[in-house]
Amino acid sequence: MVRLPLTPDEVERGQRLGALLRRARGDRSMLTTALDAGVSPETLRKIESGRVATPAFPTIAAIADVLGLSLDAVWAEVSRPAGSGERLAS
């Protein structure tokens, strides 16, 4: 199966998702957050850096739960119009 390149919008959504998770994590360690969510620290690092622009839903749900983020808040952040200056408060 050939993987199609990500569109610019998908890349931007991945970057917004990563930024949201980084802000929500605050001073909490990446290792603790990842292990509590049941994912590898490398996976969390890639998501936070935007290198995984389309992570699996269960992965995001687990990380959001550990960080106390609702899935509605996550969706609102990643689905806002491209170029919009609005950001969710963390």
Structure characterization notes:
The chain is an all-alpha fold. It has a domain at 27-79: lambda repressor-like DNA-binding domains (434 Repressor (Amino-terminal Domain), Orthogonal Bundle), CATH 1.10.260. 60% of the residues lie in helices and 0% in strands. The protein is built from five helices and no strands. The chain has helices at 8-25, 30-37, 41-48, 57-67, 71-79. Helix 2 (30-37) crosses helix 3. It starts with 7 loop residues before the first helix and ends in an 11-residue tail after the last helix. The model has no long low-confidence stretch (mean pLDDT 89). GO terms for molecular function: DNA binding. It comes from Cellulomonas triticagri. This is XRE family transcriptional regulator. Residues 37-74 form the HTH cro/C1-type domain.
Biggest sheet descriptor = none
The number of helical segments is: 5
Mean pLDDT: 89
Question: How large a portion of the residues is in β-strands, by DSSP E?
Answer: under 5%
Give the C-alpha Rg: 13 Å
At a glance:
Helices cover 60% and strands 0% of the residues.
Key phrases:
single chain; 90 residues; mainly alpha; 434 Repressor (Amino-terminal Domain); 5 helices; globular
Task: Show the helix and strand layout.
Elements: H1 8-25, H2 30-37, H3 41-48, H4 57-67, H5 71-79
Helix pairs in contact: 1-5, 2-3, 2-4
